[in-house]
Amino acid sequence: MSYGAAAALQVAVWQALTGAPALAGVAVHDALPPLAPGTFVLVGPEEVRDASDATGAGAEHRMTVSVISDEAGFLTAKTIAVAVSDTLAAAPLALSRGRLVSLLFLRATARRIDEGAVRRIDLTFRARIEL
């Protein structure tokens, strides 16, 4: 098992999201910006498990990409979440370390935070990487 492709995966996801026409004008961060009003995408936490087999080393990354918005209602956040999901489903991500075998959408959770003033949608993806 190796965590060796974690940074490469994060960079590839960030590049895909920042280069997506459907997300033009939407900020993409890998750390929560201080007092950030508006709507943005946050490339967030991940869990990694060994996915090695007889043919070689591998890892399964379960990563979360969040859409956070202070817009009223969920429509803006959901529209951006759809664009994130579509972008990652269609993007042929090239990693600087390892080879991405698959990137699949697993689930989404939409909720209100900050006493209902902010909407947050957490999208979870599973990436299988050969090392």
Protein described:
There is one protein chain. The protein is an alpha+beta fold. It has a single domain (6-130), classed as STM4215-like. Helix content is 22%, strand content 42%. It is built from two helices and five strands. The chain has helices at 6-18, 75-90; strands at 27-29, 39-50, 58-69, 99-113, 118-130. A five-stranded mixed β-sheet has the order 1-2-3-5-4. Strand 2 and strand 3 form a beta hairpin. The longest helix has 16 residues, at 75-90. It is elongated, with a radius of gyration of 15 Å. The model has no long low-confidence stretch (mean pLDDT 95).
Strand and helix layout:
Layout lengths: L5 H13 L8 E3 L9 E12 L7 E12 L5 H16 L8 E15 L4 E13 L1
Question: Could you name the key traits of this structure?
Answer:
131 residues; alpha+beta; STM4215-like; five-stranded mixed beta sheet; 2 helices; 22% helix; elongated
Estimate nothing, just give the exact number of structural domains: 1
What is CATH's topology name?
Answer: STM4215-like
What is the class in the CATH system?
Alpha Beta
- Tally of individual helices: 2
Query: Which structural class do the helices and strands define?
Result: alpha+beta
Compute the average pLDDT: 95
Portion of residues in beta strands equals 35-45%
Give a brief description:
The chain has 131 residues and is an alpha+beta fold. The chain has 2 helices and 5 strands.
